[in-house]
């Protein structure tokens, strides 16, 4: 999926609270003042004392390009730490519990509602769940039915790999999110159902609709088989 078009379509700023986070982003914006001495977020955000926080949800820890992380954060990243709702919530509550020797001087935010509000605010600057229903932490079930004979098509993973170039321009085969939902190791039926939902317009994302609309049932099955099989 073309990186420039997809990124522009994905990163939209929503003003509503987000599902699992259960927070108020307006209050979260106020709370972010406690973080803004070190971090920036939003259009034009750059690294300061700490890295910028755009696309923080689903991003593997320690991967903001060009930022020099502490050794402790590097070790946590090597151990597979990914910034999702649960890990961010724990880190904001007490950074040193999650990363023992982090350089971050923030002492933590004790109140759960405050953390929910802050994360709801930051959530606005990652992939928008309004446009990408699969985006964590507010992933929604695919509300679309696909004919059994379509689900029964056995895809060729090798053909799917051949077709996958436009997908992997944005969706990383490593499974890392970096603000764009991972599709690696999705169950075959879930992948096929989601793609057909875009194909017939049940899910309204212009770039995904365009991409899915160009694919045959056999090509969708092949892509599903490939992404499910990636080690």
Could you please say which CATH topology of the largest domain applies here?
Cytochrome Bc1 Complex, Chain D, domain 2
Q: Strand content of the residues, in percent?
A: under 5%
Using only C-alpha atoms, the radius of gyration works out to: 19 Å
Low-confidence regions: 1-20
Q: How far is the first residue's CA from the last residue's CA?
A: 21 Å
Widest sheet: strand order? 1-2
CATH class of the largest domain: Mainly Alpha
Portion of residues in helices?
40-55%
CATH superfamily of the largest domain: Cytochrome c-like domain
What are the main properties of this structure?
about 230 residues, mainly alpha, Cytochrome Bc1 Complex, Chain D, domain 2, 2 domains, two-stranded antiparallel sheet, 2 strands, about 40% helix
Describe what you observe in this structure.
The protein is an all-alpha fold and 231 residues long. It folds into two domains: 11-123, Cytochrome c-like domain (Cytochrome Bc1 Complex, Chain D, domain 2, Orthogonal Bundle); 148-229, Cytochrome Bc1 Complex, Chain D, domain 2, CATH 1.10.760.10. The protein is built from twelve helices and two strands, in the order H-H-E-H-E-H-H-H-H-H-H-H-H-H. The chain has a two-stranded antiparallel ribbon.
What's the arrangement of secondary structure elements?
Elements: H1 3-10, H2 25-31, E1 59-60, H3 71-78, E2 82-83, H4 85-93, H5 95-98, H6 112-123, H7 148-151, H8 157-163, H9 165-168, H10 188-199, H11 206-213, H12 217-229
Antiparallel strand pairs: 1-2
